[in-house]
Write a structure and sequence with these properties.
heterodimer, A: 303 residues, mainly alpha, two-stranded antiparallel ribbon, 4 strands, disordered C terminus, B: 329 residues, two-stranded antiparallel sheet, 71% helix, globular
Amino acid sequence: MTMNEFFQQLLNGLAVGGIYALVALGYTMVYGVLKLINFAHGDLFTMGAYFGFTLLVGCGLAGVLPPWMSIIAAMAVAMFLVAILGVILERAAYRPLRKANRLAAVVSALGASIMLQNAIMLIYGAKFYVYPEELRPSLVLDIFGVQTPIMRVIVIGVSTLLMVILYLFIHKTRMGTAIRAVAIDQGASRLMGINVDRVISLVFFLGAGLGGVAGVMVGMYYGQIDFTMGWNYGLKAFTAAILGGIGNIPGAMLGGLLLGVIEALGSAYLSMAWKDAIAFLVLILILIIRPTGLLGERVADKL
Amino acid sequence: MSRQNIFSLIYAQRGILLTFVIAALPLFLDRYWTDVFVSVGMYAMLALSLNVILGQAGIFHMGHAAFYAVGAYVTAILNTQMGIPVLWLIPVAGAAAALFALVVARPIIHLRGDYLLIVTIGIVEIVRIALINDIFGLTGGANGIFGISRPVLFGYRIKTALQFYYLVWGMVGLTVLCFWWLSHSRFGRALNCIKEDDVAAEGCGINVASLKLAAFVIGAFWAGMAGNLFAAKMTIISPGSFTFWESVIVFAVVILSGGSHTGVLLGTVLIVALPELFRDFADARMLVFGLAMMIMMVVRPQGLIPPMPRRYAHYLPKRRQASAKGDAA
């Protein structure tokens, strides 16, 4: 395999990794504040992909606006809708269980996941959908001699942009500080006058929103979506979150990108058929060797 | 009659009553529903075995389908390639699954709750992918293995749904007896202790890691035996039968049931058989299933029938038993 192909795979890995990272952020932020694996997050991501599809094709957004604007609009609206859905989910499925044991919340999350997945199936039918070909830019760039579809560059760019915005939001604003405080100690934050319930809602809003955008991007990148894809992406993204150290926001970004690259290179050099197993093997190895994840030691900077 | 005896009488009565209900049930069922209850029985065996790991030791284990798959595939391979009768393979399938559990669980047993949960999910996925990729050239890839022979018991070939019903539920009865005994043994009490507080358990001199591993191995052994019955019933097995989804169903049964053996049986009926009632609304039933899981956890997080609190009086010597009763009165 030539250097050229290596770089192609590397960029492919970064694009997929960017998507994993966006989904992983949702897991890691929720885990940071609630210590809960939000199993329904993968299905919120699928919801994003379907909302994007409906907006572009069903609502005819693509006909009204120029292609690039319609894509941005679809991403923004899908993001907002999924974010609202995330907040509703928290209210209905997790808030009543905040005092109960953790297992109850895990089962409720599983129930929510099953419900969402089947809701999508009932609404859209049990078949896959194809994003309109004419909307997906087919231009191939030549970056230092490496043939790169422009879609790859866009996905890497958008995910990086969103991650930077999130990072700044968490670290530079008052609301971000509140989120970090709640992640460290809920009781103390409440005493400091932070409205913990609102912060948790905010976390679900942000996390689900990022997942929704990631869904639209998967539709744009691969062109095909189906209602069961949430499980697979959700598990991979969760692996990414653990890889980087769960509860840690930069960790989720790093873990996502790393997992994407490992998977792309692994499937190119080792075996395509074992692609999905590679991610889980990485997960098991990292948990045995370094259970805190790559960036897990920065406990003070948790989330 | 002392209170103690009344309790054990109620226990025994409930057991006898349940046995009669289960034995008589096929009289009122047509072929389709008998089949449904055969699969309820198999899920019940799986759920009872997961209950040792999840319900009694409190280990978040969502990878039970992996052990089930190992049992089923070992049965299928040995039966189709070497012609060993299926029922002879029941202990072999169990032992293979237990060995597999020992190897996989050994390095991960020290992980905390959620981490362990996610690793066990990873194990199911790896096993499934390995089966699809025709590992060692034995598993037949995505098509699986077919032509597994029917079990033969005392010269009778078991092939109708009714015969399988009694075979499977006989095994379930055996399972309940074994696990009832296990949960009342020193081992079962130690597992409960680990579930409540593993640090305190360690402090009491319980070897937490090795007992957790033992719970895993026992649970996997039973899951492997359930896999054997599954292979015998289906005669065709493929990786599609051992997805993560199967693990979720069994996990949900154990949590919803609350952890007592009666609870697990009831929970299995509710989760596996009830959706069949709504076959007509085929598409919506999984949505309702998910919704029910959420509502159940919000309304009754401890599960349908949690185990009765342990009664310790009869562990004490006679003299102190009397004084303990005196205190209570």
